[in-house]
Fold these 4 entries.
Entry 1:
Amino acid sequence: MSNFTDYRGLVGQRADKHYKATLYQSERLLLGLNCLEPGQEQHVHSHDDQDKFYFVLEGAGEFTVGDETRSAGPGVTVWAAAGVPHGVVNRGSERLVILMGIA
Amino acid sequence: MSNFTDYRGLVGQRADKHYKATLYQSERLLLGLNCLEPGQEQHVHSHDDQDKFYFVLEGAGEFTVGDETRSAGPGVTVWAAAGVPHGVVNRGSERLVILMGIA
């Protein structure tokens, strides 16, 4: 496996739910892509003992973290500490592509 | 602290060495920015029990991971597993901005 990966080679879509691809994974960190077509959603959920971040690469998403819901576009990091409910929905007209990490 | 951060508000520079800013930090994950002006370098080093990734946001860098050295630009993830020496130098003419995570 190469230590260098361009995310654009991993972008994809599914009709029934959002698309996920793994970039790298260790016992400490999972780094991946989440791709949401317009209208697709990752329902609000939480991880008891894992922190998660989203970093928006393309498009825009409506992110919920705890009791806050905000739209975020390219260049924005969204942080959900362990135990904090989080999710995202693509209410836009273009694909939402997110770099995602869980530690 | 907000759970939403645009990295562009944290970009900076130092004359003497590369610039670092922290986006988020927990006991499991440090997420930050590394900004290297042309000619600046993060010398090759390693972390015995921490995995690290770089994700290039702006500019281009010459990254070393283990015995491999490659140039990487925006959209490329560079992965350095625990114990693997890694570093980066900016040999270009524009600022190199990297999203960096250590888990």
Entry 2:
Amino acid sequence: MQLLEDRIRRDGKVAPGNVLRVDGFINHQMDMELLDKLAAEFQRLFADAGVDKVLTIEASGIAIAALVAQRFRVPLVFAKKSKTSNIPDTVYSCPVKSYTHGNVNTVMVSREFLHAGERVLLIDDFLAHGEALAGLINVVDQAGGTVVGAGILIEKAFQDGGKNIRAQGYRVESLARVQSMDADTGSVEFAAD
Amino acid sequence: MQLLEDRIRRDGKVAPGNVLRVDGFINHQMDMELLDKLAAEFQRLFADAGVDKVLTIEASGIAIAALVAQRFRVPLVFAKKSKTSNIPDTVYSCPVKSYTHGNVNTVMVSREFLHAGERVLLIDDFLAHGEALAGLINVVDQAGGTVVGAGILIEKAFQDGGKNIRAQGYRVESLARVQSMDADTGSVEFAAD
């Protein structure tokens, strides 16, 4: 999506280690006007998907997920992340490795809020190795729901997450797909589509 | 606000220890239609406050804060919570005691996203002892900004947070003020205000 690519080129900051900082407009301070346009694009892309519920994971995906859920007039559920291994049996849970933080979290959703037969749209701000997204798919599967797709703001297309999850048959729509970054020049190249 | 009080009476769950569970519609699964009406009420209440920015704290306040920021057409910033005592000097930070979890977190906001002269509206889902809200006020003060007020969904009016923060001269608008709860009967009484 040109709008998001242009904004990343203008305001994103490339740091060593393939880090793309977008915390001025997406994941610490949020430009709500931009996010609302991105939410509208997800609404357009998944208009025919029969979305019953939006699911995201805390914390930085919650704002965009809220705007998407608002547009579809469906509830939003956010999965909680916990470092504890003491998981109550009232939740669906899945361990998720964080490459950013080098640890393993457990994602948890109360069994009250995911049900068999529900059509669930996953929304998150970033997709890189795909661990968080795979965890969300796993908890929807446990509940007997259907993942109708995943809407991602920024995909690091040079990492394997998106490829692996698409290979499993899931629809993944990423509004910006970063092909490469250069911390020396600050340049960001996007995949052709 | 009658709408929220009615919903809490209907769908809130009272647990021992003055715990009010609203995770079916406010802070795990979110009823976006309800939240949008609550956001509209905050917009009405703070219409003349000259809001430049909305500030909340991760994670469960982000959705309502996003809808409020969207209505005011201003950026949303969410403060991050960290257990680490190793705080970078690029952030404003404040230690915050959690009564729920019995520990101390540090709330952090990048110095890039709070500035002198900004008029900041604080939004959160719960106000009880007021530690989180006091932490947010503290970081806005450090930045030289002005807190124009705090919009809270549910205040536990039998605890001291709201009283203390109002006594410091801040405007706190809570859409539902719980006066007492009874875990045996499940009843919730609201302050007349």
Entry 3:
Amino acid sequence: MRVVQKYGGTSVGSFDRIKSVADRVKALVDKGDEVVVVVSAMSGMTNKLIGMAKEVSDEPSERELDVLVSTGEQQSIALLTIALHSIGVPAVSVTGRQAGVVTKGTNTRARIEDIDPSYMNEILGSGKVVVAAGFQGTNEKGEIQTLGRGGSDLSAIALASAVNADICQILTDVNGVYTADPRVVKNAKKMEEISYEELLELASVGTKVMQSRSVEFAKKFGVPFEVRSSLNNESGTLVIEEKPNMEAVVIRGVSIERNQARVTVTGIPDEPGWSGRILKALGESEVNIDMIVSNIAHDGKARHSFTMSSDDLGRAQAALKPILSNLTDGGVETEAGIAKLSCVGIGMRSHSGVAATMFEALGDAEINIGMISTSEIKISVTVEENHIEKAAQVVHDAFGLGE
Amino acid sequence: MRVVQKYGGTSVGSFDRIKSVADRVKALVDKGDEVVVVVSAMSGMTNKLIGMAKEVSDEPSERELDVLVSTGEQQSIALLTIALHSIGVPAVSVTGRQAGVVTKGTNTRARIEDIDPSYMNEILGSGKVVVAAGFQGTNEKGEIQTLGRGGSDLSAIALASAVNADICQILTDVNGVYTADPRVVKNAKKMEEISYEELLELASVGTKVMQSRSVEFAKKFGVPFEVRSSLNNESGTLVIEEKPNMEAVVIRGVSIERNQARVTVTGIPDEPGWSGRILKALGESEVNIDMIVSNIAHDGKARHSFTMSSDDLGRAQAALKPILSNLTDGGVETEAGIAKLSCVGIGMRSHSGVAATMFEALGDAEINIGMISTSEIKISVTVEENHIEKAAQVVHDAFGLGE
């Protein structure tokens, strides 16, 4: 089997951890697998390097930051390769460039344009492990570029696609993807599998397993991957293309997002253009809007409600001021201290009554629902933030996710 | 003017030093020069990185050591480029690979095979400073290789040749090349110029300004370079192709080498093959032999004498044992605590009486001469180590070098 394994900064954060990663890789090699290991910089290294740049200039150029920061992964690949040699595993390190990762776009947040896997295939073909630097590549001019947040996961998925790996394993500090945050919902269970789309919806509502861009990349190129722990040998959660039998599970998981706020603009004339003007003003002030709900009040005027992070509330109010001054009897209502609860599952498409089950469970628990929004495979509601844990638990139970 | 400047690890050893290098580069740019700056890793960094490798394995592979160690210069180029930007100097960093440095040979001590300066020329052509990583390049497979000791000097000379620089400046912690070690000979003077060949002879006798391979490379490709201080703005010593008027100076400088030992093998039959056998035995034991003197004693047997570092004396004696057992009345005499004094100058070729002047000066000072060896532009003698400083002074004076 051809396996790509990705280890994050914590997993290679000390010499001992590096040695134990080497042991894990050896176990795969011993059972005959061909292995590509993708590693991040040792934890703390990237921040340390950025700190060095800041010592020299308040505004270091992004091109040079990439030259500097990419040395972190380059050190990791050399050290892990040396550790592999020391336990008798033949291995060769490759930088992003040597892995054939061609990038495009802005430095510090480039995207992967193409991968030429010929050097990696040559190494694998000679029976050696490839140890590849995550997070980096070079553009067509040969300049070093980094991929931004979650870049090492993206590298792993992309390399897995390029070398036609059977599986890409994302080794991390959690055991997999859970039906809910286990710190909140006691009987949350690790999922055996989940579709790309479901994971994307969970990621978009705050389940921080992986950056959406990596999941999207995997979905686009059909790369199956497994999220599993770097600290034990338990199997994790397989993230794959949607399969027919997956719809049997109505709800895959429940996700919460705290620290939300609602802003409602009232007294909007029921005529075209106002929604666009409001959203544009918020966008220009870099307010990230999440849920949008709009309806007509009894006076014939429209009410637009938005949710956002509480941190954006002040910026939102300021951004809306000039708009309000153009409204005869407009107003802004704000509410902080709310949270969002979401149910995600592709089974929702073929099963009716999902919303009813969710709302009923919340009602039975005497939890009031604020805003509601739905997508094809997700239902989100807002509740008072101090009810969110109980809300998550009762909804989780209502769908039998802990069983 | 197109200038290549090379700064060593001490010159970029702290954020403040990096900023002051940036100021020096700006001064050149302000007067209209096109500049390529070659930098080493921050002082201590290379050893730190090697130490990291040693934490993981007692015998790290040389390929991976190069991947690891080359991050040191990569960090330096990014930091210096950022420092240049912060004072308004447009600049672009290039790794060894981006500088077009193609290497060949063994990792950790590769040689420069070729340089493709097109990217550097493009940067210079757009009015920007090139900040290049010394000490590194990539081989034809794209693998990172480092150049070994003195590698950054070599990079600077080679890049200067590739971009057709008018001058290559080696910025260091000395003001230039002196007629003698100023710590030993009080009135030693900084030379204005010296030929490649003279510097090579001085380097071979312990004047540690630059590694011989860099000087040889400069000589081979006709790259003029200047050794000067990174701490002040005084002009240094120009190292150039020999010119006719250079011969007017009989002796360019005086050099000393301490901690020498002499080994003499006696009782060697006056027949072919013995010299080769002795040298081979010493070579196989990694004894670096310097002077070799041979003559026939009154008994018709040959005596071979060698000088070497005192540190090699034990190894040399051990290596000679098996040979002595084949000699009827062979023996080994050893003498430690000697030092070597050399006079170097291309003027020697056209001036007679140089040896006489040297020996007379030593005789007048009642310093006994041990072994003598000569080359076309060098005369070396051994003296008792506790007389070496006085010997250097009187010979320096005899040739009027302090005037």
Entry 4:
Amino acid sequence: MKDNTGKINDLIKKRFSPLAFDKRAIEEYKIMRLFEAARWAPSSRNEQPWRFIFATRDDGPAFENMISTLAEGNRIWAQNVPLLILSIASFYSSFSGKPNYYAMHDTGMAVGNLLVQATEMGLYVHQMGGYDKKMARQKLGIPEQYEPVAMIAVGYRGNPDDLPDDLQKREQARRTRLPVEEIVFRRVWKTT
Amino acid sequence: MKDNTGKINDLIKKRFSPLAFDKRAIEEYKIMRLFEAARWAPSSRNEQPWRFIFATRDDGPAFENMISTLAEGNRIWAQNVPLLILSIASFYSSFSGKPNYYAMHDTGMAVGNLLVQATEMGLYVHQMGGYDKKMARQKLGIPEQYEPVAMIAVGYRGNPDDLPDDLQKREQARRTRLPVEEIVFRRVWKTT
């Protein structure tokens, strides 16, 4: 199998998760389009398990609420972003009440759409697992049958030169991927 | 909040999960680009938990192996597709060996990339949860620490008029989504 880097969709190729964000506010219509894109993802039995809570810097205390849940290593850069989104997954089927095996998976696909849409509109996105999920649940009023997934920072690109050295290095370090031969197998597992 | 249907990325808008597929083979370079696109998805700690096994109709018994795992209601239409992919998730961190909360989520994001890339190349994708996961694991040799996720049918669009009436209806029935007000909340849960 041959590696085809460079021939894929431009938005997928361009996307990455920066640490340097501009403080500039995001236009409201662009924020709504992020969710509109997410909304059209496919899902198992069309369950649409994804939910989103968002706040912009202009939302004041609501925004600070979200910032306050972040791990220190994330807060140091994410406190500058203009928009935070918490992705949330409904872990139970709305039809049967049983656990939905695809809850996280389908929420990931919805976020995938959001990433494409963001990139198309000149925005960058950095998702974080490093935040206090219990605190987020409490402060944002998330019901029990839903699970907080990722805290999502969104904004225009900032100047990496404005970052402290260690963050600059962290930002650069992330653009590696496993070779395609290690993740894709033809016919059966690992006989490429 | 206003609904913004129609202003989102064209590929996201165009994508849907058909039941009518053309039998025409997919070019090998296009197959590889699907995985290349998937590969560049983001993931928690860059774990890249996604794996894929694929077979084309030309792979003969290997392809029949995958077809044989499908639930009857899926086999009836999916047996005509030229390409089947099984998405697979590594449920444990390759760093710590601990469960990876984002395994399914990040695999979903990778598949989201695959969907965008497929649509850009004129291909359609229909994911299925309805297949025998135990049989798939056994027939495809999937190791214990990995979990089968979705059986993914890929192909060019077929003529829906060639479908039996009930499948035509099933294909049309799927294009609904919850209103944006039910899935997106500003500041806190459900106070839009």
